[in-house]
């Protein structure tokens, strides 16, 4: 079932299936900011990633001597959440462990996804509560896909990324969906990154983030469209679009977790980039997005 939150600037539609954003539209122009999930290209809008981010080697891991099979980005994106709270400008979805989740992930948990509107800013907040009697190990992240407006003669090559603060960051390449750890390098993210289909021929661009309040902007000089993603305290961000199948969209993905390194031994307790949460404790994280249509003033 779909639910709506809105104000006088934007209208957001979110499904209880996967707690996934379906649509973000300008209240003034009706312009759609979110990718509309063409199944022939990429059939999702903005999946929520939990309890892993990325892919495990062979889609499996071991924990305390037992092997579990878990697909890319975990199970939350395919799960039905319950609605815990819903107001005009905010909604909170809740997912609890159950018999099916414990077959692939042994921990007891409460996982909440909250969306909150403030003017043209949409917050996506995560809360994980460990209901187990042992330390819980998990990753979490967002995967929003943004439309590139090309209704007035623009093409994908007219758009670019702008990252703030303007510093050099470590980039971690992927090889066969695992982190190619020994080939990570310093990337010139202190300059603009031009968008093209070939940018993603080796899969996602993954950057390590240092400190809080990093921002990734998706822009063009052809009109006033831009989207800003504030990653807050996320240690990683991925930038991705499907390849070789392509279309006019791109994802900006704040992550508190990451794919297996190519030298991973498969033991969950050794997995790089995971969060470790003690029994009864709560983990909180999140990111924010602002949307500016092709006719908005640039801010």
How does the SSE layout of this entry go?
Blueprint: E1 2-6, E2 10-15, E3 20-26, E4 48-49, E5 60-63, E6 66-69, E7 82-86, E8 90-96, H1 99-104, E9 109-118, E10 121-130, E11 136-138, E12 140-142, E13 145-147, E14 159-164, E15 169-171, E16 174-175, E17 178-179, E18 185-187, E19 193-194, E20 205-208, E21 214-220, E22 226-232, E23 236-240, E24 249-256, E25 275-277, E26 282-292
Antiparallel strand pairs: 1-2, 2-3, 4-12, 5-6, 7-8, 8-9, 9-10, 10-26, 11-25, 12-24, 13-24, 14-19, 14-21, 15-18, 16-17, 20-23, 21-22, 22-26, 23-24
Would you kindly provide a written description of the structure presented here, covering whatever features stand out?
The protein has one helix and 26 strands. 2% of the residues lie in helices and 44% in strands. The longest helix has 6 residues, at 99-104. It has one helix spanning 99-104; strands at 2-6, 10-15, 20-26, 48-49, 60-63, 66-69, 82-86, 90-96, 109-118, 121-130, 136-138, 140-142, 145-147, 159-164, 169-171, 174-175, 178-179, 185-187, 193-194, 205-208, 214-220, 226-232, 236-240, 249-256, 275-277, 282-292. The strands form seven sheets. It has a nine-stranded antiparallel beta sheet, with no helix packed on it. Strands 4, 12, 13, 20, 23 and 24 form a six-stranded antiparallel beta sheet that branches. The protein has one domain (2-292): Beta-galactosidase, Chain A, domain 5, CATH 2.70.98. The mean pLDDT is 94. With 299 residues, the protein is mainly β. The protein is globular and about 55 Å long. InterPro entries: Aldose_1/G6P_1-epimerase, Gal_mutarotase_sf_dom, GH-type_carb-bd, LacX. It comes from Lactobacillus acidophilus (strain ATCC 700396 / NCK56 / N2 / NCFM). One of its GO terms (molecular function) is isomerase activity.
